[in-house]
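Weekly modeling sync, notes
Attendees: AB, CL, MP (scribe)

Item 1: holo prediction request
CL wants a bound-state model with beta-D-mannopyranose before deciding which constructs to order. AB pointed out that an apo prediction alone won't tell us much about the pocket. Agreed to run with the ligand included and paste results into these notes for async review.

Input as submitted:
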Amino acid sequence: MSLKLKRDLRNPLLLPVPEHSWESRFIFNAAVVHDEKNDLFHMLYRAMGVDDVSRIGYAVSEDGIHFARLDKPVFSPSNDFETKGCEDPRITKIGDEYYMMYTAYSKKGVRVSMASTKNFITWKRYGVVLPEQDDKDAALFPEKVNGRYMLYHRIEPDMWVSFSDDLLHWTDHKVIMGPRKDSWDSLKIGIGAPPIKTSHGWLMLYHGVDQNMVYRLGFALFDSNDPTKLIKRSDEPILEPEEDFERFGQVPNVVFSDAMIRYKDEYLVYYGGADNCMALATIPVKEVEKEF
Ligand code: BMA
């Protein structure tokens, strides 16, 4: 039996806001973390409005379903690498700091950039952290593994890993997983959410794209002690575009996720539908443990 995520019946959870020029057209591909101390869900979402530039908006929730949003973006382009936008944030908490990896987009191409915050409003920016070539879909591990920080990222069409002592200088770049011929992930793949440590290994949510440009989601499991070693990955997608809000939008036939949280006895997967809105799908932790 292959694993399937279950959509929340209240989907889509967040839509664009026509009155706000910066988020009037599309909101999608959000990072979400659960702050255990305050029992709050913090969301950073990608927004596009009249000028087609991606900015990042902030929303907060007590239940992970109903989010209150700010009127203004909390993170906007600020340098030559981001003139076309700051896209697809992914957050990892390390110590008491939330690190956001995001795609800086400009005429130079796409680059992995980093910023950090304690409050989701004020930011420290570190700029582009990976070498000068097209690279995106980056997510940090929540802890050092074998004494070093680790980062999964994507240089088309494969997923890569890099290592660092200080989060700023990344070395030992290596491919860890690639597309599979004649499969739902045959064209290219990229990480979804930052990996989650389980008793079986590091659980990773990823997206796969096929020859028809359909974006689907799957799981991959990596070795606990050596997360460059793939143990298992989904033969079948765990979520694929079926609902209207996933099939029609800015880009049709897309489910794309930047966030998976373990909350109580479930994994919560927040995802963008057709590059247009935000939605939620879930799966019991026990079900995943049986298969992965
Ligand atoms: C990718 C990224 C995502 C987007 C997806 C589908 O390249 O730009 O932000 O969701 O394409 O359009």
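Recorded for review: The longest helix spans residues 285-291.
Action items: CL to compare against the apo run; MP to circulate these notes.
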